[in-house]
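debug: dumping io for the single-chain case to check the tokenizer round-trip. Nothing else runs in this session.
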Amino acid sequence: MPPPPRLRVFAFACLATSVALASPVVAERGGERAAQTGKPAKPGKPGAAPKRKGPPAKAGPRKRGPRRAMAVGVDRVIEGPLQETVPVIGRIVGREGGVISARTPGPVEVIRVHVGDRVKKGQILAVLVTERLRAQVALQQAELRLSEQELARLERLRTNKSAAFPKARYDDAQQKVAKAKANLSIAKLALSYAFIRAPYPGVITKKHTEAGAFLRQGDNVVTMINDRNLELEADVPISRVAGLSKGRVVMFEVAGGQNFKATVRAVVPEQNSLTRTVAVRFSMVWDRKKAPPPINQNVTLQIPVGAAATAVSVHKDAVISRGPAKMVFLVIKKPGGTMVAVPRIVKLGDAVGSRFVVLRGLLPGDLVIVRGNERVRPGMAVRPLRRRS
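debug: decoded output
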């Protein structure tokens, strides 16, 4: 009699389990796992590949491409005349400027300018009432005509050799004519003075009177200054004046850091006993197309200390301190065309302006790094951006 279906299924499952447990791979893995965890191994699938044990394989070294050159600012080592200077504070002054006064008395009829107006030489600034002055001119003209008529009558008597010719009256008539001419010139001059004119070109900075006011001779009318004719004035220590000969060129700096040239015009031969300084005037070299600087603006002049000397110099920005030593980075071109940074220990002298005097370590024409040198390493590839000189 055949077994029932449920019994046949159970028998088939038991047979499959016994075959799997008998597999050598599963038995080996199950035994190892059981030894490690202390738990019985689970049956594995027949025919499954064993997993690889141990640490993962190490990757090989990664290849890198060529490193990009670092952009740096450079400057040339130069050889030329260097002049040690000391800063001295000066100021901008005008060579022409001051108060314009009335040259004849009279009431003011009109003021034709205002503060800030730019005027030309000879332009009318103010006008006085001229009725009295014109009448004075007419009176002197009449006096002159009478004197000339009297002189002409006596001249006819002298020409005709008349016995009635008075020699003394003839001489008096000549003097009267000369006096009348002089009085007429004075009256015309006073009339011209009623038109107050600018003696030089410039700008009105202040008004001292208005229409309707009465001016005496010498009273102030306006104040003006010629802002196109400027120069510098500085109180220089007496120990520094020796190097300031007439025509010597110096540099000065205005607000904003702009540098310009000036030449020594005059050294005032008078010492200030309190400050031990001497006033020195410098002629400015200024572009007339640009707006002039304001009067009394402070400037910094670089006054030379002694005679100029020729020396090799390097820019201050190129120098790096390494303890007591001073170092710069040279830019050297390799045979392949690559530019690299090479350190160089240098010995420096005095500072002159923005440069150091080089005593040892550099030659004229050497290219040094002045910007970005704090990030440069020896042998690093660099790319010069620009040259300052």
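debug: round-trip ok. The mean pLDDT is 83.
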